[in-house]
Amino acid sequence: MRSVKTLDELHSARLSFDGTVGLVPTMGFLHEGHLSLIRRAREECDHVVVSIFVNPTQFRKNEDLSKYPRDIERDLNLIEPLADLVWMPTAEIMYPQGYQTWVEVEAVTKPLEGSMRPGHFKGVTTVVAKLFNGVQPHKAYFGQKDAQQAAVIRQMTRDLNFPIEIVVCPIVREADGLAMSSRNVYLDPEQRKAATVLFQSLNAAKELYENGERDAEKLREKMREVLASEPLAEVQYVSCADYDTLEELDVIKGKALLSMAVFFGKTRLIDNLVLG
Ligand code: AMP
């Protein structure tokens, strides 16, 4: 596995690849969720490129950019058997002095994460567009864990005619149901135990749906009720939205996305589940 930093190094490594290239964008501190994306890329592509970049433009001022967990040595050991190339640009390489170009997706970035983290998706789409241009992959791999991000990237890829197939991979969970996340390390043991309530609340709503309930507010109520049973959980939002537009639903007709953001102390966790 080669590891590169600058755009020149990246371009010359990319030129040496024959056949299909799969890109897995990450912010590092890798876990099984990331590795599932990399393994899928390995199965489907001749060459696998992993990017590791903690993108400053997708963090708001009060968010955890400077504290975001990092362990590059461990990450490289995990990727080594699976990838051909790892690209680790610096913030100066991605956003040199005088940088002034941004990619913004409109409606689908507005609700849910977009409403709680204004500007977040502008940073995400800009950096992903730059990763796409740098690596020029045939396929790019994202996790369902960040459901709105996946929807936004799909929209951007269509709108800007990137000749790239977006592959969205299932959420990888811990044995007790907590969705894997680099941010789980912030949880103290008590919060970590309490955090299983996210998956429990999603499953409780899913059970109602499977028993025929189609009133979206009833499902939101059920999720709120289960979350409220955990004193350490501070709910930011709970949603039952259209799978494609992410607009809140009254009645579930087609595919729907149950999702939520919940604080445990200062740590903000998100989770989701697709219905239909
Ligand atoms: P991040 O490093 O948090 O930016 O995540 C990089 C990619 O891994 C994103 O496409 C995430 O959606 C995906 N990812 C993160 N956690 C999981 C998980 N538990 N299961 C599946 N994919 C994940």
Question: How are the elements arranged and paired?
Answer:
Layout: E1 2-4, H1 7-15, E2 21-26, H2 32-44, E3 47-52, H3 72-79, E4 85-87, H4 91-94, H5 112-116, H6 120-135, E5 139-143, H7 147-159, E6 165-169, H8 189-194, H9 197-210, H10 216-228, E7 233-242, E8 256-264, E9 267-275
Parallel strand pairs: 1-4, 2-3, 2-5, 3-4, 5-6
Antiparallel strand pairs: 7-8, 8-9
Helix pairs in contact: 6-7, 9-10
Bound molecules: adenosine monophosphate (AMP).
Quaternary structure classification: single chain
- Poorly predicted sequence stretches spanning 5 or more consecutive residues: none
Main sheet summary? 6 strands, parallel
Mean pLDDT: 98
Label the overall shape. globular
Specify Rg, calculated over alpha carbons: 19 Å
